[in-house]
Design goal:
Blueprint (H helix, E strand, L loop, with lengths): L1 H8 L2 H8 L18 H7 L5 H45 L4 E4 L6 E4 L9 H8 L9 H9 L25 E2 L20 H10 L16 H7 L8 E9 L5 E15 L2 E9 L3 E9 L8 H5 L10 E8 L5 E8 L3 E2 H10 L6 H19 L3 E2 L8 E4 L4 E4 L6 E2 L18 H4 L8 H16 L9 H12 L4 H7 L16 H4 L5 H10 L10 H5 L14 E2 L1 H8 L5 H7 L4 E2 L9 H4 L6 H4 L25 H4 L5
GO molecular function: ATP binding; protein serine/threonine kinase activity; protein serine/threonine/tyrosine kinase activity
Protein name: Protein kinase domain-containing protein
Keywords: ATP-binding, Kinase, Nucleotide-binding, Serine/threonine-protein kinase, Transferase
């Protein structure tokens, strides 16, 4: 609704003229010359993809079977529901009288009247004096409380009936409290109280109808009391013995486990608070599967960088099935780059060029740091790039697929999310390098520019087709660079599509830089440190560059009076860029000959070096042995 309000009221012409924000139109290029199935057929028959095709068909069959089982289960559930409805209808015909309940909070009586409203108007007056909005019960409490109601049958012949009070009772639920205790407000439903629905909740609690009115079934006092106890909904405080992610020392901490903020095949992520400092963190819980190597903890203990999520603590837990879980307590970053990109698209805007430049630079800086250690992330995608929209800072996360690459050791080719998978992986290479992360980074940057994935393949084969649509057919030499063992290269000759036709709003410098990352050949593909000194990032090296507060601008455009607008209204219109040039010895030792272009003169005092230097000429780079790292 907020996005629709913005689209309806925003002045797009002003946004483009003043801030350079272009209106978003999906502009993915469809190349009709290769849209026929011919290209896919040529690729799909290759022995290289036979196993992948079989696995895909098997997954599709399993998915269809699963959907069929779910449909059958839904039919069974609906049939059981119809049976219960028929039983409740029969019970309603047999027992049309009112139902009474015992109030666990005192001597007062919780009473349900019959469906026929009072004729003397007393019920109407009681209902008007206690509107539904005045109840202290939230909808959540109301629904929880209704599950624990126990029922008694209406009076049979010979039973004594206590008539309602002279003031009348509302034809809903009413709670009154006698004695010296506080008076509870009415808990009431609508006048057409549905006894059949309440009977259903009663059956779940195994409530039974009594033949005598005097024998009233007690409620489970403890459970119902929890419904009105606010402490019940407070996060649980857990005490745990953990290991410090920096020092390796054993410590005792207390943390609260609150809502889940992420999940996937790796496990789940919770938002937590470290007590008593109330520091907000993220706790990632991963099952330790013996069938797979999990290097995440070992690698997380090696990488400590501004643009990488920091490992604070870790510990192991075990469940009742004796399954071991690794728990990583990481710094909490509120948003993903995927969500930030969708934020602009939902407002029919392209992401501002300065933000794309800022996030791409920090992504490359994080990759340059881990590549200097020989670590390949192998799963770069917008969902694994966390950002703080208030500061513009980006952090790389999720090292579950990361590995220290050894040239003498083969690696698995089926790795990385499909849209961001490098072509050498599609060609089945097992001796790839860290350049596969550079390709993924180029795909991420292209997605920020385009507002949607650049290569949205539906399978590994289709992924190669999507790449060839844009970059054209690879040459024999490029295929040899991607996988020297791949001999069958009878691909149809497809001409590349000019980047300017795809990224119509991008500048020539942007397209030139992007094309350096999206190269078939890993040898021709630019490295992270070379990409960081590209003229494309000169704007970030300008000391006068400020980051406009785009979200405040958008809030003003939609003329919002919400609390979020008030939050942005207090923020400045221009923000300082995050720290981009506080390089350490490792980062400056990767390619020392480009350090003069990497570090602007005004940022020399920001360097985090072991030995202070007056100029970069005095810096002594590390040797290869010093740069190399090994796992424990």
């Amino acid at each position: 609704m907020k996005d629709e309000n913005f689209i309806r009221k925003a002045d797009y012409a002003m946004l483009e003229q003043r801030y350079g924000l272009c209106k978003y139109y999906p502009c993915y290029v469809h190349n009709p010359s290769i849209s026929t199935p011919v290209l896919k057929d040529l690729i799909i028959d290759k022995p290289l993809y036979a196993d992948a095709n079989r696995r895909k068909k098997k997954r599709q069959e399993l998915a269809r079977e699963r959907q069929m089982m779910e449909k059958l289960e839904m039919i069974k559930i609906e049939e059981r529901q119809r049976d219960r409805d028929r039983q409740r209808a029969l019970q309603k015909q047999e027992h049309p009288q009112g139902l009474e309940f015992r109030n666990p909070f005192g001597d007062g009586k919780l009473q349900v009247m019959s469906e026929n409203p009072a004729t003397d108007g007393s019920a109407e007056s009681a209902s008007s004096s206690h509107p539904r909005s005045s109840s202290v019960f939230s909808k959540r409490h109301h629904s929880i409380a209704s599950r624990f109601i126990s029922f008694v049958r209406g009076p049979s012949d010979g039973d004594e009936v206590t008539p309602p009070s002279s003031s009348g009772s509302p034809s809903g639920l009413e709670i009154t409290e006698s004695g010296n205790g506080p008076t509870l407000p009415l808990l009431r439903r609508s006048k057409s109280f549905d006894q059949t629905k309440s009977a259903q909740t009663s059956s779940r609690m195994k409530g039974v109808f009594k033949k005598k009115l005097g024998k009233i079934v007690d409620w489970p006092r403890l459970i119902l009391a929890c419904c009105f106890n606010t402490n019940m909904f407070k996060p649980e405080v857990v005490s745990e013995q953990v290991t410090n992610g920096h020092t390796g020392a054993t410590e005792h901490i207390q943390y609260t486990k609150s809502q889940m903020v992420g999940h996937g095949s790796f496990g789940v992520v919770f938002q937590t608070q470290i007590m008593p400092s109330n520091q907000v963190c993220a706790m990632k819980r991963v099952l330790q599967d013996k069938r797979y190597k999990n290097r995440e903890l070992q690698i997380m203990k090696l990488v400590h960088h501004r643009n990488i999520t920091d490992l604070k603590y870790y510990f192991y837990t075990q469940n009742e099935k004796n399954e071991v879980f690794l728990n990583l307590i990481l710094e909490f970053v509120p948003e993903t780059l995927y969500k930030a990109s969708h934020y602009y698209v939902s407002k029919r805007l392209y992401m501002p060029p300065l933000e794309i430049k800022l996030y791409t630079y920090q992504m490359l800086r994080a990759l340059n740091y881990i590549h200097s250690q020989g670590i390949c992330h192998r799963d770069i995608k917008p969902q694994n790039l966390l950002i703080n929209p208030d500061t513009g800072e980006l952090k790389l996360c999720d090292f579950g697929s990361a590995k220290i690459l050894n040239p003498l050791e083969p690696n698995v080719a089926y790795i990385c999310s499909r849209y961001y998978r490098a072509p050498e992986l599609i060609f089945g290479a097992t001796n790839y390098t860290t350049k596969i992360d550079v390709w993924s980074a180029g795909c991420v940057m292209a997605e920020l520019l385009l507002g949607q994935p650049l290569f949205p393949g539906e399978s590994s084969i289709d992924q190669l087709v999507e790449i060839m649509r844009i970059l054209g057919s690879p040459s024999k030499e490029q295929i040899k660079h991607m996988n020297s063992g791949y001999s069958d290269n009878k691909f149809p000759q497809v001409k590349p599509t000019p980047m300017s036709k795809i990224f119509k709003k991008a500048s020539p410098d942007t397209l030139s830089f992007l094309s350096r990352m999206l190269q078939y050949s890993p040898i021709e593909r630019v490295s992270c440190i070379e990409a960081m000194v590209d003229p494309y990032f000169d704007e970030l090296r300008n000391p006068n560059t400020k980051l406009p507060n785009y979200r405040k601008i958008f809030a003003q455009q939609s003329h919002s009076s919400s609390a979020s607008y008030q939050t942005y209204a207090a923020q400045p219109d221009l923000k300082e860029l995050p720290q981009l040039f506080d390089f350490d010895d490792r980062e400056l030792s990767v390619l020392p000959q480009v350090n003069s272009r990497l570090v602007p003169e005004w940022a020399m005092d920001q360097l985090q070096l072991a030995r202070a230097v007056r100029s970069l000429d005095d810096f002594v780079p590390w040797t290869k042995d010093q740069l190399a790292v090994t796992l424990d």
